[in-house]
Design brief:
Length: 285
């Protein structure tokens, strides 16, 4: 009972600090009316709000930061964390392309890459180089931003909730918080794909729930927050930097692609069910 009370006190402290820190950057973004305002540093601030809140919470409660799960995971979890987002993104976008909901390739984007890569190569060669560099070195930059969030969500919140709740309850709680923190820029900002807010919010929330099941399972199974950071970085990179821009709009593609369309959340949901059914493998903390 004492352990549960202490856990919930930590969670309450974390949530309060997170709201205060993230509010500062939400105000800056909404004032600028652009997610990438401030050269993207406002968005980076939001992404690191949960990590800063988690570390401050542990210090305020006299706990060591080592409890966040800094150890590097076993290599199989590293590869799973990297490849799972690639797998569900590939399945989702192949479905989109084959069903005519989006067109592949996006030749306009490929043509822009000729100038972006600066080698005066063909669109195909420029695109292949872009994808190779994004999938390797781009992952490093993506992890730097994702780590901030994952220190909070997977390093602190998921295992802290798992001390006093079962896996399903802990995941629903953490997913709700994770989704809600995106709502200000989803509703009042430009972090959307142009569909009605209710539709984008619904798709995004379902996607967050599915990702939370996978990421929480990996964190609790491996004992490392790095699985969450790699998963998160891989997800953002493959979807936002590769698959979505390489998909040309057919008129209604926004309703089906990216994090605000319906296809990706459904596919991720299938992966999530698989990991949820394996929740019995997780040892109690």
């Amino acid at each position: 009972m004492i352990v549960q009370k202490t856990s919930w006190q930590k969670v309450a402290t974390f949530l309060l600090l997170f709201v205060v820190i993230s509010a500062v950057f939400n105000v800056l973004i909404l004032s600028a009316r652009e997610l990438r305002a401030g050269d993207g540093l406002y968005a980076t601030g939001i992404m690191w709000a949960s990590g800063l809140a988690a570390m401050a919470t542990l210090k305020l409660h006299g706990c060591s930061l080592s409890g966040l799960g800094w150890k590097w995971p076993a290599i199989r979890y590293v590869w799973l964390s990297l490849l799972i987002p690639l797998a569900y993104a590939a399945i989702a976008y192949v479905l989109v392309w084959t069903c005519g909901l989006g067109h592949f390739p996006n030749r306009e984007f490929m043509q822009k890459l000729v100038g972006t890569m600066g080698l005066h190569a063909s669109p195909v060669a420029s695109t292949l180089l872009y994808v190779a560099l994004e999938a390797s070195f781009g992952l490093v930059g993506s992890m730097g931003r994702a780590l901030g969030e994952e220190i909070g969500w997977r390093g602190f919140l998921a295992p802290e909730l798992f001390k006093s709740m079962n896996f399903t309850g802990a995941t629903l709680f953490s997913a709700a918080v994770w989704a809600l923190c995106h709502y200000p820029v989803l509703i009042w900002g430009d972090y959307n794909s142009g569909t009605p807010s209710w539709y984008g919010l619904t798709c995004f929330t379902v996607l967050i729930l599915g990702c939370s099941v996978i990421a929480n399972w990996m964190r609790l199974k491996s004992g490392s927050l790095w699985t969450g950071a790699i998963l998160h970085a891989s997800h953002n990179l493959f979807i936002q930097a590769i698959f979505t821009p390489l998909t040309a709009d057919t008129g209604k593609s926004a309703w089906f692609i990216d994090e605000f369309g319906v296809v990706l959340p459904v596919v991720i949901g299938g992966f999530a069910i698989y990991f949820w059914r394996r929740r019995h493998e997780l040892a109690r903390l």
